[in-house]
Amino acid sequence: MYLTKEEELALAGEYGYALQKAMEILVALGDIYGAERLIPIKSAQIAGVSYKNIGEAGIEFLRDFVDAGAKVSVYTTLNPAGIGDDEFMAKQAEVLNLYREMGIEITSTCTPYYGANLPKFRDHIAWSESSAVIFANSIIGARTNREGGPSSLAAAIVGKTPEYGLHLDENRKATVIVDVQAKIKTFVDYAVLGYHLGRTLGNDVPYLRGIKPERMEFLKEMGAAMAASGSIALYHLEGETPEYGNALSGNLETVTVEDDDMKAVKEQFSDDWDRIDMILIGCPHASLFEVKEIAELLRMRGRPLKIPLFLTASRAVKALSDALGYTETIERYNGKIIADSCFVVSPIKGWYSGIATNSGKSAFYFRSFGFNVRLDDVENLIREAP
Amino acid sequence: MKFKGRRIVGGNAEGELIVSYKPLSFLGGVDPETGIITDAESDIRGESIAGKILAFPRGKGSTVGSYVIYALKKKGKAPKAIIVGEAETIVATGAIISEIPMVDGIDVSKLRSGMKVKINADSGEVELLESGE
């Protein structure tokens, strides 16, 4: 890989241990994946935040890195934190403090684009949360590979990333055409479609046609499910996403999605209400519109929920919800908005055993953790819930 | 006998091989306190990688696995060197931050646990010293 003089010096340790290690990571990845050079990034988004995931090993590494003077050089935000008992929360605070000491903005969300970390078309970025990666690539047309925690941290410190994968035009072309013949209308229809595509396509770049999403949240949800049940990092949607016009070249295989495919997924996540003890909305983190919708649905229901409803959102959206009175409404009906955290990365096994959700991604993970799962649109969940 | 691979992390090491023929996840697959393989799907489950030269086809699983390699190193339970068929982000990053010599591009199906090898990771060379039979 070609390195500038500055980069050579950093790699040689002229600017200290932290920058050297970060450079070593980027250069090794560049060599492994055939990058020709490093390119500047506009922002970073780092995974490896929940103490449930990184554990003592991660804390130890972060502390050594902070002690060695690690500082980020581009705007950087974090993935959601975990929620647990007091001991867990103390460890979680320690993790966040270490990241703060590196100059990272301690907003911990899978939807950084609802706050201050919003890239523009064709920006190179180094993000790691899989649902944010697919959102940035597909809906915004920014460019990022699916980074890991350490590689996104290295990119944040150096301010660069190796130029390979989805940073290059040729790798952003569609590899398969998806002809959607199933009727896709609601939020959960999109979640189920995403789940099915992730399962069946693996890591393709699908070119979808036949759907017309009413809201951006539907695409956010579809992408998150695709990236959870498979490892898709970019899709194109005919007539909708910014790069669809250049996405097709050569002869591509076409697959179709029928109503039966959708039904097969929905049936997997249809546990009865008596096996459900919490409702989880906001995976990925809810938009302000989604919060407002929940507040209105609860008001229409008119009586409090017997099981708790947790709505996860970024701190930015929570602050607006507080100011606009949605938080108060939701709390009146036994709901709670939880900012900058995520149940998927929290040690909640034992606290709950069954979740009702509108999220394909949550359905996927909680089923894999051994939970009962009921997947349905919020209108139905809030109307039917005990 | 010598195998020629590619340098991922430089350095030298000599020691006994422990070989897995399946992709390895460090997060949830290796106990960071002891260096013992805990992955139920692993063909070397229950064996220790501490102080050995670990060879396997490729990494898999969570990228947090890199930090598990770091924890092993801090506890003195890390492998002396890592040999893989194909390097990917998780193990490469873990080896870099832990300063464990690592080479890729080696056909691990030719290696057996118990063999003694010498690695020059800078040149990517793995030399077989004793068959270990």
Briefly summarize what is shown.
Chain A has 386 residues and is of the alpha/beta class. Chain A has 14 helices and 14 strands.
Give a topology summary:
The complex is a heterodimer of chains A (386) and B (133).
Chain A: H1 5-11, H2 17-32, E1 38-40, E2 43-46, H3 51-67, E3 75-78, H4 86-101, E4 126-127, H5 130-140, H6 149-158, E5 160-162, E6 176-180, H7 187-201, E7 206-209, H8 216-229, E8 236-237, E9 254-257, H9 259-268, E10 278-286, H10 288-301, E11 309-313, H11 315-324, H12 326-332, E12 335-339, E13 354-357, H13 360-368, E14 372-375, H14 378-384
Parallel strand pairs in A: 2-3, 2-4, 6-7, 6-9, 7-8, 10-11, 10-13, 11-12, 13-14
Antiparallel strand pairs in A: 1-5
Helix pairs in contact in A: 2-6, 3-4, 5-8, 7-8, 7-9, 8-13, 10-12, 10-14
Chain B: E1 2-4, E2 6-9, E3 12-19, E4 53-56, H1 65-74, E5 81-84, H2 89-98, E6 102-104, E7 116-120, E8 125-130
Parallel strand pairs in B: 3-4, 4-5, 5-6
Antiparallel strand pairs in B: 1-8, 2-6, 3-7, 7-8
Helix pairs in contact in B: 1-2
Question: Which terms would index this structure?
Answer:
heterodimer, A: 386 residues, alpha/beta, four-stranded parallel sheet, 14 helices, 14 strands, 15% strand, globular, B: 133 residues, eight-stranded mixed sheet
